[in-house]
Amino acid sequence: MKTILPALLLAAIASAQPSFEVASIKPNNSGDGNESSNDHPGSLAMKNVSLRNIIEKAYDLKRYSLIAPDWIDNLHFDVNARMDETAKREDIRLMMQSLLKERFQLKAHNEQKTMSAYALLPAKTGFKLKPAEGEAGGTSSNSNNGNVSATFKHISIQQLAEYLSHRMDRPVIDESAIPGFYDFALEWSTGKSADETGPSIFSVLQEKLGLRLEAKKLPVEILVVDSISRTPTEN
Predict the structure, then answer these.
(1) Which DSSP string do the residues of 159-224 spell out, in sequence order?
(2) Distance CA 201, CA 207 (A)
(3) Alpha-carbon span 12 to 223, nearest angstrom
């Protein structure tokens, strides 16, 4: 006779998030301002990382897209975890989410909030790029004294907006309606250092790509922390 599992149990199994094979979380009270985070095939190591940064990494958030108690900035932890060597970056984020829920009893929900943002739009001069050939893609960037250089391979305009959101003072939302994937390189200065010599990202986007950033009030997806424990359960 076959055993028939209840529908709710089947749904729970299907929606279950992956977890680390082993995970250690220890408070770091050193007061050292240095944080580090590294993931390699089969392992994750975070040292002196604030609880806020752990949440941001787990949910791939920018600082403005997380609403949480202020004290999460002041609690720092060392996290060491093991996992299958074939785990992908998205798998690792899901495992970190499970870790936060299991060990910190994190409860949170998503909602939209209207805030100051930049809309990424075609410039009046018109979009300047031709679609990329091939399928291999990726982004690499370097920053030196506020001068930034970045190379983009097989990147959509939506992905460019997400990249810029991590490096600007507000969200960047793609409203260009430009489809396809593109190869390009950009160099600009952030305007935060006297050593900077390059143009701003605003002028570079317009001159190189035929895109512009327009300041707007836009709905942005955010994560709201409803409750979270200051002390994780024991390892």
Answers:
(1) HHHHHHHTTSSS-EEE-----S-EEEEEEEE-S--TT--S--HHHHIIIIISEEEEEEEEEEEEEE
(2) 10
(3) 22
pLDDT in tens, 134-179: 777 788 888 887 788 999 999 999 999 999 988 888 899 999 999 9
With H, G, I as helix, E, B as strand and everything else as coil, classify residue 146.
Answer: coil
CA distance 211 to 206: 5
Q: In sequence order, what are the residues at sequence separation of 6 or more whose Cβ sits closer than 8 angstroms to the Cβ of residue 80?
A: 23, 24, 43, 44, 45, 46
Q: Are 184 and 152 in contact (CB under 8 A)?
A: yes
Residue in this structure with the two tokens 């409803």, named with its chain if needed: 226
CA distance 20 to 94: 9
51-59 vs 89-103: helix crossing angle, rounded to 10: 130
Locate the domains of the chain by residue range: 8-104, 113-220
What does the pLDDT look like over 103-128, one tens digit per residue?
999 999 999 999 999 999 999 999 99
pTM of the model: 0.68
Tokens of 38: 């590294």
